[in-house]
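Q: Got a minute? One more chain.
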Amino acid sequence: MDDALPHPPTRLHVELPDGPPLVLLRPARPEAIIDALTELDADEKLPYWAELWPSSIGLARALAEGAIPVRGLDVTELGCGVALGALAAARAGARRVLATDWYTECLDFARASAAENGLALETQAVDWRAPPPDAAADVVLAADVLYERRNADAVAAAFEALVRPGGRAVLADPGRTYLKDLLAAMAGWRCERALRAVVSPHVPQGAAEIHLLTFTRS
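A: Always. Here it is, folded:
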């Protein structure tokens, strides 16, 4: 399976409270992907997906603990990257899990990780500016996606389009500058906020603090 991936992989074992570590495949040298870029397109896409971000770990742990109930529900992850959140939702008992991203390369890794863990996972290339109706779900997840100002409006619009009536959008974020812009764009939703400490060998300096925000329509 490794030979079919677009970049040489490494395996990370991510501890979660609901069972054995999840085995997560990601590019062994994310920096090499950036170094290989010769030019950016009009959207200035950069391969942020190739890293495992602390917000993804915090989101996955919240799912594993049941703090974000997903059992028997349909779940979509936006900007899934290496899809730790989607995998955690699948193991937490979600009925259908769809991992989405702009980059088709990361979806290859998501499928490989799902197979490694024996989990059912669907994948789809999605542009937040034009989310397809079949990506709608009861719970829509996103982790550390606000690395550019324009992403705040795009993510808010995707939440609006994809969260089913009575459903929720959940964002994990390290406190980026553009979080306030997303909150402004989501002003019509009720927001519950919590801070979560993430301690992991996969986090730089060993620990981080993330904001976990749950949005429901007012």
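A: The two ends are 46 Å apart (CA to CA).
Q: Perfect, thanks.
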